[in-house]
Amino acid sequence: MAPLPPATLRLSVDTDALAHNWRALDTMSGSAEAGAAIKADAYGLGVATCLPALRDAGARAFFVAHWSEVPEAIAHVPAGQVSVLHGPSNAQDAAFARATGVKPVINSLAQARLWIDTGAGACDLMVDTGINRLGLSMHEIGDAAVAQLEIDTLMSHLACADEDSAMNAGQLVRFREAVAAIPARRLSLANSAGIALGPDYHFDVTRPGLSLYGGIQRREHEGVIRQVAQLQAALIQTREIAAGESVGYNATFTASKPMRIAVVCLGYADGFLRSWNGASLAFGSARLPILGKVSMDMVVVDLTAAPDLKEGDWVDVPYNLRNAAEHTGLSQYELLTVLGKRWQR
Ligand SMILES: *Cc1c(COP(=O)(O)O)cnc(C)c1O
Questions:
Q1: What is the number of the ligand 1 atom nearest to the C-alpha of 105?
Q2: In a domain, 261, yes or no
Q3: What is the rounded distance in angstroms from the CA atom of residue 272 to the CA atom of residue 180?
Q4: Is 342 a domain residue?
Q5: Alanine racemase C-terminal domain: which residues (predicted)?
Q6: Burial class (CB in 10 A: 0-12, 13-18, 19+), 144
Q7: pTM here?
Q8: Is 7 within a domain?
Q9: How confident is residue 1, by pLDDT bands cut at 50, 70 and 90?
Q10: For residue 233, which phi and psi values (nearest 5 degrees)?
Q11: Which of 1-5, 183-187, 221-225, 308-312 has the lowest mean pLDDT?
């Protein structure tokens, strides 16, 4: 076997902060229990690291989106605790659900009939109360196929939980209508931001994702939710440039004085997109402004504030999600899931 390659990009997941965030969201969920959305490789931070920490903190209901995400999840938790949000589109999907023991989330009458015709069994049911994404429409909830399902968790998903929008209360009213019409063992409506909307939104199970991983969208989570992902990149070259010299593609930065600069092993292929142009990396409290454009594999920074840095030293990539979202215009979700494969996790 080839030896382990040396790392030049480090993504460390603070599993204590992750466990803390789950417990905080579980507490904020009141009498409901918090589950955990672990889709998209735990929002890019790695299921293999995050899922055991969430499980050990006490989470018992896990949500993935794709069937492809099932094997890694059930390596760590019982299959009966895993729900697959996209549900079964064909007999193969249904057979896979039965073979593994995970719960499909039924999202339409067609999926309901497929699940019944291929042998039924425990499932979850998603009702669309206004987001118009996946889920049974309100006018379909009385259908005979729905009555035949063995529903563990009846759920719906909020479109605007991160805003104080009238849409939230409207969706709550429609969810209650669905609850009155459809028998289920447990009920679930709130995502991370939905938990902050208060007890009316909690029901039996909440489904936080983003806030587990450090995302803060509402004031109720400020001072409670901790940063989980810590990112560091190595310097691969330092150089001195003279006044009048430019840096990077299209020469968008020109030095007005002699400068010491460094090339950092971090680029848009690593999810550090060009929307970071103009931001700074950091070394302790020293700010290292990015000079010129972000390249595929590199950025160049100004070492004026930390002149002793040299090749092989590590610098911090500021990944406070709220601040980063503000600078880049990316959502906190995108900032996490965009991180590429070259990070040593
Ligand atoms: C992704 C997802 C969640 C988690 O949402 P966050 O906003 O990340 O907390 C919950 N429920 C469903 C159906 C989802 O798709």
A1: 13
A2: yes
A3: 47
A4: no
A5: 228-345
A6: exposed
A7: 0.96
A8: no
A9: confident
A10: -130, 150
A11: 1-5
Helix (DSSP H) and strand (DSSP E) numbers for the chain: 11, 18
Pick the catalytic residue from 103, 249, 268, 333: 249
Same structural domain, 57 and 203: yes
Tell me if 296 is assigned to a ligand binding site: yes
Is 28 annotated to bind a ligand? Reply is: no
Ligand 1 within 6 A of 86 CB? Answer: no
* Residues 233, 190 share a domain: no
- State the distance from the centre of ligand 1 to the C-alpha of 194, rounded, in angstroms: 10
Q: Which of 191, 221, 251 is the last residue of a domain?
A: 221
| Residue 5 domain-assigned (yes or no) | no
Distance (angstroms) between ligand 1 centre and the Cα of 193 equals 9
Q: Kindly give the pairing relationship between strand 122-126 and strand 150-155.
A: parallel
Distance CA 200, CA 240 (A): 61
The rounded distance, in Å, linking the Cα atoms of 87 and 125 is 9
Q: Examine the residue annotation and report whether 43 is marked as an active-site residue of this protein.
A: no
User: Residue 332: phi, psi to the nearest 5?
Assistant: -60, -35
Task: Report how far ligand 1's centroid is from the alpha carbon of 210 (Å).
Answer: 8
Query: Measuring CA to CA, which residue among 123, 126, 129, 193 is closest to residue 152?
Result: 123
* Cα-based angle 30, 34, 38 (whole degrees, multiple of 5): 160
Of 304, 302, 294, the residue nearest 266 (C-alpha): 294
- Domain hosting 249: range is 229-318
Per-residue pLDDT tens for 221-244? 999 999 999 999 999 999 999 999
pLDDT digits (tens, 9 = 90+) for 128-148: 999 999 999 999 999 999 999
